[in-house]
Design brief:
Strand 1 and strand 2 form a beta hairpin. The protein has helices at residues 28-31, 33-38, 50-74, 88-91, 98-109, 113-128, 132-144, 149-165, 170-192, 213-219, and strands at 2-6, 9-14, 18-23. It is built from ten helices and three strands, in the order E-E-E-H-H-H-H-H-H-H-H-H-H. By secondary structure, the chain is mainly alpha-helical. It has a three-stranded antiparallel beta sheet with strand order 1-2-3.
Length: 225
């Protein structure tokens, strides 16, 4: 049963899974951006010090914002309903700030509830999963270094070590993973035609007071959104 629609998807009520999102065909130009924005330089190190942990948190914020921005476009909310190619402000990997930050945060705010729910489900699931660190580390590293297995392996080990030894890093890493994973799964579902976007089962959300402000803002968990 259809329960809603937007230019980029149809939301249906599945008897087994509940509300699901079935994407419309994705323009090739948009689909090509998904792997492009995952190629970012996650640091390679043996023991993550404070400075590196802060750098990783900033990379997570950038990756989450870029993934949610692209997801809003996939859902049919292209700026001005036109496509002029990949904008530089989406692909540069400098620290997220200023008008560029607000542009991405605005795209995240425009996500409809069914689409945002896909990301929240993946985010909550990986935080609650005892093997969440392995899932996050391997996915982010392989996307960042698709043609360099040596770098990908070292990056995966570094991210896993960070997840295991510094729990405060888990929420940002989980959101970077969830935003990236959801956009990729959206495109995969679109290729199958009339198939729902895959998500992991939603778990209980962390208490809002324990969620980092920028994470809460991007996920719509903050009253400031």
């Amino acid at each position: 049963m259809e329960i809603g629609s937007c230019p980029g998807y149809v939301a249906r009520l599945d008897p087994q899974r509940g509300p699901v999102v079935c994407p419309e065909p994705v323009p090739p130009e948009l689909g090509a951006i998904v792997p492009l924005i995952q190629q970012i330089g996650w640091p390679l190190w043996a023991e993550p010090g404070l400075r590196i942990r802060r750098e990783v948190a900033e990379i997570c914020r950038l990756q989450a914002a870029r993934g949610l921005t692209l997801l809003s476009w996939l859902a049919g909310r292209l700026p001005g309903n036109t496509w002029l190619g990949v904008p530089e402000w989406l692909t540069v990997t400098t620290r997220l700030a200023g008008p560029r930050q607000e542009r991405m945060y605005e795209a995240a705010r425009e996500l409809t509830e069914p689409v945002r729910g896909l990301v929240v489900a993946n985010w909550s699931w990986v935080l609650a999963n005892p093997h969440g660190g392995q899932v996050v580390a391997s996915y982010l590293a392989s996307g960042a270094y698709p043609e360099d297995g040596y770098a990908a392996a070292h990056s995966a080990m570094a991210l896993l070590r960070l997840w295991d030894r510094h729990p405060v890093s888990r929420q940002p890493l989980a959101l970077a993973w969830a935003a990236s994973r959801t956009t990729a799964d959206w495109c995969a579902a679109a290729e199958l035609r009339d198939a729902p976007v895959f998500t992991y089962p939603r778990a209980e959300l962390p208490p809002v007071q324990t969620v980092r402000p920028w994470v809460a803002r991007l996920l719509g968990l903050s009253p400031l959104t």
